[in-house]
Structure formats: structure tokens, C-alpha cells
């Protein structure tokens, strides 16, 4: 018998070191350096009849202050990112949706000099060969032929500006897998699918957990495509390890907090006779010093850069102490972001989100570190022309964020936390006056909506500034889409905020008083 061990990382988002960069001494139980130790130990412990396969499952080159620094300082060398993964000797890589955030040219540079193939079977079009090496790879070890099929969530065009995807098309991963898996079954003894995507339904019961948009198709994949021996997933930042529809499946969370492990046991006829799936926590692993040495000088520069001051704030405090209160009553930090959006987009209406409960906002003497820990996405800005009816529908989606308990306690609707935490899909608007009444049914909670003191009419058109993720309908906002965009600002929002602070000697924090939530 032969045992095949499949180790995977996914959604590391450039968190190389065990830190979230909250301060220069911040230490966290996560990061690629810790995952590298887990992977290295597994390789060293492998017995002669054991095969170790390693997969990097996407969302690697964007998401941390480290990767932001590389993107904004071309001379620093974004190719360091693949120097790290190459030194770790992955067998294959897959592109995540965030790989496209900085455009194709940056993607090509950051993913250069690899010693492993980048797989993307459902990324097609004339330019696809410029960013992926092949749809699949076949590895032969100890006489066992192991195929890895690479897939990326087909929803990428919904989030990204068109010029980030020139010449590319994204096919449904189910359609792609139906074409490729039967072929690979004829060529290989083991077929692994590495999918940067997750599950649109509960993988056990099949109960839908989100609209069927094509963003996540893991359940359909397992139900409709026979012949898969192991499934590596990601994108949703969930920690999953189980047998679904007879297929061992993993999803190792985010930021290198865990490594996925799938074990397959093959008999003498090279058939899988047993399987298992589990996650290996990286919390107690020591960071791999041999890997850290490759980027130690860059990390020092990153930490210094993060502590550079950016402007001065006065007035109401922009420090977020109670995230739920900020969502219910507004916050000067959110007002500042909306003010920046309105100034850059030349509108008097804007919307933004408190992305997660770790957002701390800004101090009176803010630094780049504070800003990037509060606004961590390289979203650009768009302005859309919207009807009053569409604005009301968007606000109803926002109002559905809250649940009202019998005792009057306000909580977050499970739809925004399960199966994936999506707190970033609740927006707060500036430039409109509105009221949510949580005592009313979902879909009927917007009881006041005014613009410049007058009720917003369904057929009235207004221009609204927002980040391009939301502008393309991301977060289940179908009333927003690229066809309604009338202006775009190519500078990302963290830089727009920095520029705004630099352009003003003092920026006054302002309380938000334009909306209320009745509970």
C-alpha cells in the first residue's frame, strides 16, 4: 500500500510573518512561516511508502500590509512573493480572485520565477496563457500518477475592473471539471481538484446558504462530477475538513492559521481504499527561519513604512471602540471614508462599510499602519447613476443585516456570519437621510429615505460613490452593476484617504447623524 498526503494552504493573503501588523511587536498564531514549518516537518516525517503533495490554493499576493508595501513600491520586488513559495517547493499553485486586484502585469511579476506550475483550467481566452501554465499537472512518484486540476471561482469578473481581466474569461468550474476530470481519470491513478472557491450550500445537507451566483460551486462540483479523489477548497476563509459526498475535502481558513491535510491510502492496484481529511493548526509551530531570511530586510522596511504619520485629525474621535455601535449609529471614521469618496467621485452621496470587527479606525495622529488595518482592500472608486428605487433596495439589503430579538436586543443576521463572516456587506451611507425600523419584516424596513430634505422618489436618479467591489454588485447587491458606472477613479481607496489627509492641515472628525435604526 501507498499513502498520499495532500497538504494545502489557501487565502494566506501575504501574511508571511506571524503578525497582523497591529503594532511593531504584534504577534499572532498564523502566517506562512508557521505553515512552512508544518509542511517541512510533514515532508521530513514521510516514510518510504508515503507521498507528500503540496498545493498553494490562491489569494496569496494581496491582503496584508506586507503585500501592500510591495505593490506600492515596485523597486522592492513583488517577485519575492513567489521566491517564498518556490523555496517552500509547492507542487502546484492556483490563482485566487485577489490575485487580480493589481492587474495582470503585476500578477505576472509577482508570480514569476516559480518552480511549480500555476493551474487554471477554467480561466480561458487569449491572455490566459500569460498568467496560467496549464489546466492541470500530473506528478508521478513511486509509480503513482497524481493529477491536480486547478480551478478559480468564476465570479472574478463581478468584482474586478475590466482592465484587470483583459482577454480573460472565467468558465463555471462545474462545466470545466465535467470536461477535464474524466480525461484525467484515464491518465492518472489519483485525481485532485484544487479549487479557489467554496460551497454555495451546506455540504452535508445540501441546504442553500447563499444565492447561486457561481461564486461558490463546491456542492455542485461534488454532486455532479464523479471521479474526484480529493478536493482542496478556499476563498470563504472557513476551516473545514471532512468527507463530503465520499470525497475528502479541506478548507484551511485564512492567513496561514492552518494547513489542510488529506490522506489517501492506495492498494497494490493503485486504487484508493481509504481516505481522511483534517486541519493542522499552525498556532504552536515555530516560524521557519530559513524562509524568513529571504524577506527579513523587506519586513524591516515594511514595519518602518507602516509607522509613518499621515496627516492630523481633530474633532470627534475616529477610533472605533464598539463595532456594533458604529454600525447602528454611524461613526466619524466611516464618515471620513465617505467624505473622501465624495470628494474623489464628485458626488454628495457615498457609502462604505466597517469591514470587520478588527477595524480600529484612526487616532488623532494616524499612521499608515492604522489606515491599512482599517481599510485593507485595494478597492478603486466608482460612481454610479442609480434610481431612487435601486437605492431603496440597496438600503433594504443593509437593513436585513440586523436581527431583533424578543427582548429588543439587536444582533447580526446569521446570513452575514454563516457559513462565512461577511460583515463587510453592510454599508453606511452619507448624503442621504434614512431610517430603518427593525420591528418591520425584512424588505420593508426602510421607513424614511430623503435627499436634501425631500423624499427620494422611485424614478429619481442620483449619483453615488462606492468602492468597485460593491459597484460591480459584490456582496449580493444586484441593483449595482458596471453598466451603471458613469465615472471611475483608478487610485485605490487607502491611497485616496492618505492623499486627502495630506491635502488638509487638519481634518475634523464628524459624527454621523443622517440615519437611525429603530429597535
Automatic annotation (TrEMBL):
One Pfam family per UniProt: 5_nucleotid_C
SUPFAM superfamilies to which the protein is assigned, alphabetical: 5'-nucleotidase (syn. UDP-sugar hydrolase), C-terminal domain, Metallo-dependent phosphatases
The keyword Disulfide bond is annotated on this UniProt entry: no
InterPro entries in the cross-refs: 5'-Nucleotdase_C, 5'-Nucleotdase_C_sf, 5'-Nucleotdase_CS, 5_nucleotidase/apyrase, Calcineurin-like_PHP, Metallo-depent_PP-like
Keywords, alphabetical: Hydrolase, Nucleotide-binding, Signal
Any GO MF annotation of the entry: hydrolase activity, acting on ester bonds
GO biological process, one term: nucleotide catabolic process
Domain Calcineurin-like phosphoesterase: start-end pairs: 5-238
PANTHER family: 2',3'-CYCLIC-NUCLEOTIDE 2'-PHOSPHODIESTERASE_3'-NUCLEOTIDASE, 5'-NUCLEOTIDASE-RELATED
Family: Belongs to the 5'-nucleotidase family.
Name the UniProt record assigns to this protein: 2,3-cyclic-nucleotide 2-phosphodiesterase
Amino acid at each position: 500500500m501507498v499513502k498520499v498526503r495532500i497538504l494545502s494552504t489557501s487565502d494566506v493573503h501575504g501574511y508571511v510573518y506571524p503578525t497582523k501588523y497591529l503594532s511593531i511587536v504584534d504577534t499572532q498564531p498564523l502566517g506562512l512561516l508557521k505553515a512552512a514549518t508544518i509542511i517541512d516537518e510533514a515532508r521530513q516525517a514521510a516514510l518510504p511508502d508515503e507521498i507528500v503533495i503540496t498545493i498553494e490554493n490562491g489569494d496569496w499576493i494581496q491582503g496584508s500590509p506586507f503585500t501592500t508595501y510591495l505593490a506600492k513600491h515596485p523597486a522592492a520586488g513583488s517577485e519575492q512573493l513567489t521566491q517564498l513559495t518556490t523555496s517552500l517547493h509547492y507542487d502546484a499553485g492556483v490563482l485566487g480572485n485577489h490575485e487580480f486586484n493589481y492587474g495582470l502585469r503585476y500578477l505576472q511579476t509577482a508570480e514569476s520565477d516559480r518552480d511549480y506550475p500555476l493551474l487554471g483550467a477554467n480561466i480561458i481566452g487569449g491572455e490566459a496563457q500569460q498568467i496560467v501554465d496549464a489546466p492541470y499537472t500530473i506528478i508521478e512518484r513511486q509509480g503513482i500518477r497524481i493529477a491536480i486540476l486547478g480551478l478559480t471561482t468564476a465570479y472574478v469578473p463581478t468584482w474586478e475592473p475590466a482592465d484587470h481581466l483583459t482577454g480573460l474569461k472565467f468558465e463555471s468550474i462545474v462545466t470545466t471539471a465535467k470536461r477535464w476530470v474524466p480525461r484525467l481519470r484515464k491518465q492518472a491513478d489519483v485525481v485532485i481538484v484544487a479549487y479557489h472557491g467554496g460551497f454555495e450550500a451546506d455540504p452535508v445537507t445540501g441546504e442553500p446558504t447563499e444565492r447561486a451566483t457561481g461564486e461558490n460551486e463546491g456542492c455542485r462540483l461534488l454532486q455532479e462530477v464523479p471521479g474526484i479523489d480529493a478536493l482542496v477548497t478556499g476563498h470563504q476563509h472557513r476551516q473545514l475538513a471532512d468527507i463530503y459526498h465520499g470525497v475528502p475535502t479541506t478548507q484551511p481558513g485564512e492567513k496561514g492559521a492552518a494547513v489542510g491535510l488529506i490522506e489517501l491510502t492506495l492498494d497494490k492496484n493503485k486504487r484508493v481504499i481509504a481516505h481522511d481529511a483534517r486541519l493542522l493548526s499552525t498556532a504552536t509551530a515555530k516560524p521557519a527561519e530559513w524562509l524568513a531570511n529571504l524577506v527579513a530586510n523587506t519586513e524591516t522596511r515594511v514595519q518602518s513604512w507602516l509607522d509613518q504619520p499621515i496627516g492630523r485629525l481633530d474633532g470627534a474621535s475616529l477610533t472605533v471602540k464598539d463595532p456594533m455601535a458604529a454600525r447602528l449609529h454611524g461613526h466619524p471614521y466611516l464618515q471620513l471614508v465617505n467624505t473622501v469618496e465624495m470628494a474623489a467621485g464628485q458626488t454628495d452621496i457615498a457609502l462604505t462599510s466597517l469591514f470587520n470587527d478588527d477595524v480600529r479606525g484612526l487616532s488623532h495622529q494616524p499612521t499608515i499602519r492604522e489606515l491599512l488595518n482599517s481599510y485593507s482592500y485595494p478597492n478603486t472608486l466608482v460612481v454610479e447613476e442609480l434610481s431612487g428605487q435601486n437605492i431603496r433596495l440597496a438600503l433594504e439589503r443593509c437593513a436585513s443585516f440586523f436581527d431583533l430579538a424578543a427582548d429588543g436586543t439587536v444582533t447580526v443576521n446569521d446570513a452575514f456570519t454563516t457559513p462565512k463572516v461577511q460583515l463587510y456587506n453592510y454599508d453606511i451611507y452619507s448624503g442621504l437621510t434614512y431610517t430603518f425600523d427593525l420591528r418591520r419584516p425584512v424588505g420593508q424596513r426602510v421607513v424614511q429615505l430623503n435627499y436634501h430634505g425631500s423624499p427620494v422618489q422611485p424614478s429619481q436618479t442620483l449619483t453615488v460613490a462606492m468602492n468597485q467591489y460593491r459597484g460591480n454588485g459584490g456582496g449580493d447587491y444586484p441593483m449595482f452593476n458596471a453598466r451603471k458606472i458613469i465615472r471611475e477613479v483608478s487610485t485605490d481607496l487607502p491611497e485616496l484617504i492618505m492623499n486627502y489627509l495630506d491635502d488638509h492641515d487638519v481634518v475634523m472628525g464628524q459624527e454621523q447623524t443622517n440615519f437611525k435604526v429603530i429597535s
